[in-house]
Amino acid sequence: MIEIIAFLDYKGHFGTKKTSWPPNSGMNLSLLQEVFLKSGFILRFEPFSSIDFKTNKYSGKYCLYTSSEDPGNYYKQFLENLVFGLKEKGAIIIPDYPYLLAHNNKVFMEILRDLKGLNELTNIKSKVIGTRQELKNYCIDFQYPIVTKPAFGSMSKGVKLSKNVKELLKNTKNISYSPNFFNDLKELKRKLKYNGYKRHSLYRKPFILQSFISELDHDWKVLVFGNNYYALRRATRPNDFRASGSGIFSFDNTLPEGLLDFAKNVFQLLNVPNVSLDIAFKNGTFYLIEFQAIYFGTTTIEKSPHFFTQSEGKWKIINIKSNLEIVYAESIINYINKELSENSYSRNGQEGY
C-alpha cells in the first residue's frame, strides 16, 4: 500500500469545509482515512509541528497539507516555510508549492498565471502593483474602467471599479494604506533632516489591476474534483458589478455551451487534483477571473444537487449530492494514480510513441 501523509494545523484540522461542526473545523479525518484505505492508500496524519528537517523521512513521500486564512496571514506564512522545506527535502507536495503561495494571494496568483503563459489563463489582462507610488508611473496607460483588487481577501472585499485616473488613485489609496505610527514619524524626521531623502511609502499593501468585463449580470464558480465538475451561477447585485459574495446563486441544469470544456482545459493546464475557478462569459468568450487550488470555499460542492462529468466526449449531469470528503479523497487518488501511470510509461521508454 502507498502511504500518504496529511499535515494538520495547530488546531488539529485539515482542509476547509463549509458545513463542518464546530465551524471551521475542516474535514472529517476518519472518513478521509476510510476512503483512501478502500483504494489501497494509507492516510497518516501528522501535525505540522512534528516536522523534523534534519531527517529524510519525507523524501519521496506523498504529502497533503492544509492552508490558513488567519488574520494577518501570520500562520499561513509559517506554513509556507514548512511546505517549502518539505519540498526541498524531496517530499511530493500535493498540490505543488506555488499553489500554496497563490492561495489568498492575488499577486502571486497573477504571477503564476503569467508563468504558465497559456491563453486560457491569460486572456484577461492583469497587473500587480507593490505600492501606490508605483501605480502613478503607470496609471496614465490603463484603459478605463478598470478593476482594483487588494492582494489578500475574498468575497470581493475591497474590490472597486475605477472609471478614470482620479477614481483609480482614490480607490487604491484605501486598499494600499499601511500606516505605522512610530516608523512614519521617524521617516518624517529624516525627510526634514536630509535634503532629497525619499520617505518609505505610506501605501505599501500590494494590489491588482484587472481589465473590466462590462455588462455582466452573473459569473460562474466552477469546482473541479478529479472527474466531477460543480457549477454555481452567481448573479450580481443591483448597481454592483461584483458577483462573488453577492449571495445570489443557483445550481442550473443547463450551462453555457463550452463552460465545462473551458474549465477542463484550465484544470488540466494547472495540473492539480482539485481547483476552484471563477469564470466570466461574454460574446462567446470565457475569461478566467481567479483560481485557487487549495483551501477554497466548498459551498458549491456541498450544496449542489448534482454534478457534471464527461463520458465519451460528452458532458452529462449526475443528479446526486456529493460528500466532500469522498470526492476530495477520490480526486487525490486519481491524481496520484495518473502520476504513477505516467512515470511507469516514461520508465518503459515509451515517450513519444
Question: Mind explaining what this structure looks like?
Answer:
Among the domains are: 125-211, 2-Layer Sandwich (Dna Ligase, domain 1); 216-322, 2-Layer Sandwich (D-amino Acid Aminotransferase, Chain A, domain 1), CATH 3.30.470.20. Helices cover 33% and strands 23% of the residues. It starts with a strand and ends in a 6-residue tail after the last helix. The model has no long low-confidence stretch (mean pLDDT 90). The strands form 4 sheets. A 5-stranded antiparallel β-sheet has the order 11-10-9-12-13. By secondary structure, it is an alpha+beta fold. The protein has 11 helices and 15 strands.
What is this structure, in a nutshell?
With 353 residues, the protein is of the alpha+beta class. It has helices spanning 29-38, 74-88, 97-102, 106-116, 119-122, 132-136, 165-176, 181-193, 259-270, 299-303, 324-347, and strands at 2-8, 41-47, 62-64, 92-94, 126-129, 146-150, 160-162, 207-211, 218-225, 228-235, 249-250, 274-282, 285-292, 307-311, 314-318. The protein is globular and about 70 Å long.
